[in-house]
Give the backbone structure.
Amino acid sequence: MTTREPHVPMFSSPDDVRDRLAATGYLADDAIATTVFLADVLGKPLLVEGPAGTGKTELAKAVTEAADATLVRLQCYEGLDEARALYEWNYRKQLLRIQAAGDGQKWEETHDDIFSEEFLLARPLLTAIRRDDPTVLLVDETDKADVEVEGLLLEVLSDFQVTVPELGTITATNRPFVVLTSNATRELSEALKRRCLFLHMDYPDAEREKAIVLRRVPEVPEALAEQLVRTIRTLRALELKKSPSIAESIDWARTLVALGIETLDEAAVGQTLGVVLKHASDQARAVKELGLN
Amino acid sequence: MAADGLIDRHVAFVGALRGAGLPVSLAESLDATQAMAAIDLMDRRQLRAAYAASVVKRAPHRATFDRLFDLWWPPAVGDGSESEGDAADIDDMTEVEPADLDAMRNALRDQLREVLLSGDDEALRRLARQSVTGLGRTDSPPGRQSWFTYRVLRALSPETLLADLLKAILDGDERGGLAEKVARQMLAERIKKFEEYVEAEVRRRLAEDRGVEAIAKTSVKPLIEQVDFLRASRDEIAELRRRVYPLARRLATRLTAKRRLGRSGRLDVRRTVRASLSSGGVPLTTIHKPHKPHKPELVVLCDVSGSVAAFAHFTVLLAYALREQFAKVRVFAFVDTCDEVTRFFERGGDVGDALARMAQEANVVWFDGHSDYGHSFEVFAQKWPDAVTPKTSLLILGDARTNYRALSLPSLRSVVRHARRAYWLNPEPRQYWGSGDSASSSYGDVIPMIECRNAAQLEEFVEQLLPV
């Protein structure tokens, strides 16, 4: 195995991770704290998978803040290619440079000139590798990207180096902390998974969810937060098209505070159900099952 | 634990994971050892997280992993009194008098009531351990199973505490409202957790008696997508139904990917010229119009009699979740006669409702409520002769168990001839086809019959059915 670039761990223990994440407002459980710690110490990318709205992207942001690093984000989408993810030559500027050179200049000079730093457009992956300061690289919604992008990620994330034919190989001086997120709309390739540490983020247990709601919406009374979390859990137990996630719990708490609702009774739930359930059929089902009319 | 012992245990554990169907590579096994070196080994939660992060790369595998982890890295030894110190008040329980046993049962029940009310997870776990130590054991000859979950749960019967607990929580509030539903759900969750803790505890004690390997083999459940439709429990069916939408999304994503890889349409001159302006009129990239996929109509004809209802429901739900991929979806249900049930699945309708209404309102029983494929096919061909056209993909769902009634092969043959494509999905294992009253082989001559026993096989089939 090639010697890896020196990586200075950002955290000293899982408890350290938990405390520092908590200081930024992110409440991690044992699994999250330990896995983040391991990803940092072992220098491996962290693949976070789970339903939408459970705080996957938030985790990357919280780690960035806790480690006093800079976040570089690569948002994946269908059709994302190397030119958008890694680097691209600035065609227009090169064209201008050639036209501006006129007839006097030799081709060799122009050639060397237009393939230099100045004309290179660094995209997120290259940016993250070239940075000297602590960096968190967030590859968001990896499952939305095409399979070829996974190959590219594999190459970049295993050696943390990028070869630009005209410039040579660029190697990371300080390896970034890499977080990949996925909603599991498709299975990522085995090869990519093998190289990552895996963290499945599900809906939290009642106690942690309550703590999160209280943390994010401090104005909400504790008793109301407790009621809210229990009601959300009851909704999750129904067969719904889209179960409410933590993001919805927080939105709900904010709504209740804004409306000045103190207790969550039938009327209050019926009135604000649209914040939590986004499908008409899900709402109809909840109304029926919970006896809201 | 000595280093050698630790490595042996690690290797055995990884072996067991592989045995249970988790694809753990050598590299991942090594990652786990590296991770173990970095954490506090005495903290079991850290150890679990470290293992999970390095060797479990698919969420559905997690339940299997947790079971095996609890066996290989048990939270306690024996009755747990050495490591915990708080289970010691229950001594060796094999010798207790029946009266004492009763007293202990009541004491544990009182504790359980309190813990269920407070929701303290750690206390619940401890109580499960005490209960198993006190109540779960039988004196049986060596070599026989000596610990039983049902003994503990029958003695404590947590469900019977429910009414009492509800009263305590609602505290005079009126019954039947939202508050009760929410409290009920919360208590049900805690009781389920207690039952799981008891089960885990019993497995641990059994493993101490008979060896970890023996217990590991019997205690691992199949993955949910491998569960046979015909043998699925109610919980498993509910779990499967919950997976319909993620599954549909996954299939749709894969389909879009396949379509994009296919040939693209004609050159889009306007957009190509527009794009070339930014590179001085040189068309560096050409832009093509997207290729329009052909969308077939889907007609599903499903047997909804008791034996195969679960399979039919799941498949119909999946067809509906995928309806954007088809020009039109029509569903017909039959038991011994046939009726169209498409109306129950109209856009935005509720899934559970649709299935319930389909069972109650649709006119699917004509004679005695036993499957009659022959009559159903005849009715279908007579009443909806225009349902199947050359644009239609026809899907028949059923086990082809005809109760020795007429087959009406000609009717089916003419329907199949009209369809663009036609398949029969049979949830029975292939080796039973043609045995007893199964008409699989006769029908199989008319229409391609495909074995579809579990969600994995269904997914595979649907993927190749979807139009590229």
Q: What stands out?
A: The first strand of chain A starts at residue 46 and ends at 49. Chain A has two domains: 14-86+123-200, 206-290.
